[in-house]
Structures are given as C-alpha cells and as structure tokens.
Amino acid sequence: MFIAIIILQTSIPLIGYIPIGPLSITIIPATVVIATVLLGTVDGAIIGGVWGVITFIRAYIWPTSPLATIVFVNPIVSVFPRIMIGLVAGWAYMALQKRIKRQSLSVSIAAILGSLTNTILVLGLIYVFYKAKAPQLYQINMEKLLPYLIGVVGTNGIPEAIFSGVVTPLIAVPLSRVIKRRT
C-alpha cells in the first residue's frame, strides 16, 4: 500500500510535491515516516528506497526539473538519502518511545529528523559530488554554491520538516491505534 502511495505521490502533480513559487515542497518524507512508524525501521527504509529508485528512474525519463537530470542520475544522491529517512526516523522513534510518553511527540520528532535527513543528505551529496562541476552546470560562482544550498535548506528543508512534524503524527498515531486494536 505504501509503495502505491509513493508511486502516486511521485507521478501525480500536487500530491507529493507542493509548488510554492519557484520552490517545490516535498511531502513524501512524511509518507516514508508514517510507513516507518507503522511497519518498522526496515520496512520504512525499503519504502524510502522505492521513492529513491523512482527518483533515479524519473531523472532519465520524466525529470521534475533540469537539475534532476544532472544530480538524480547518481543513485547515491537519489536513493541513499531516501533510505536513510526510514532508518533515522525509525531509530529516533524507537529511542524516543522509551523516553517520551506521548506517542504523537515521538512521531513528530522522528518525522522532523527524517525530513531533515533527506534534505541535508541530498544537498550535502550534491555539494560533495558536483561542486567541481557547479560553475558549468548551475552557472553559479563556486563560492556561492554552499550558501545557495544552505538557502535551499531554509526555503525548502525547514518548511518540509515542519510539515512532516505536524502532519505525520496526525496520520500515524490514529492508524497505529487502529492496527493495535485489530491485532
């Protein structure tokens, strides 16, 4: 079911990415964290990996931006950060569950960390792998690449993390209660 949701979110406009002016707020990390909370860390990493593979394939056949054809053809940039969403969120959720009584707070913090993991890894790996090519690819002065990427963290990453931190517990907590009642 979560793989189908990820496929829909990556295929249908406005379901997985919310365009706000020139920016595109990614809400798919919330889906990965919901899967992680409900199914476990390994399954969350697999769901994240599916998103990464779709991102990798789309970079070749239906890119979401000109940048995608350059950076997301590298599976370390397109797949690895998505897998890490499930792992980081899962580990955080398990650790927080033992310390925090309110499940919604544990889920919220795990969602924020998962979303930030995606943002920081994608942008950090873009910097690591493409900084030498940045002047040609992005028409950016090399000295401005890092501030540009940090700006993207502020304009995209922070709103995405806030979205995940608010919406994920609203969905995951009631679903986890329903699942517990049925088992």
Automatic annotation (TrEMBL):
Keyword rRNA-binding in record: no
InterPro entries, A to Z: ECF_trnsprt_substrate-spec
Residues that span the membrane, as ranges: 6-25, 32-61, 67-93, 105-128, 148-173
Source taxon at top rank: Bacteria
Record keywords: Membrane, Transmembrane, Transmembrane helix
Single GO term (MF): transmembrane transporter activity
Name of the molecule in the record: ECF transporter S component
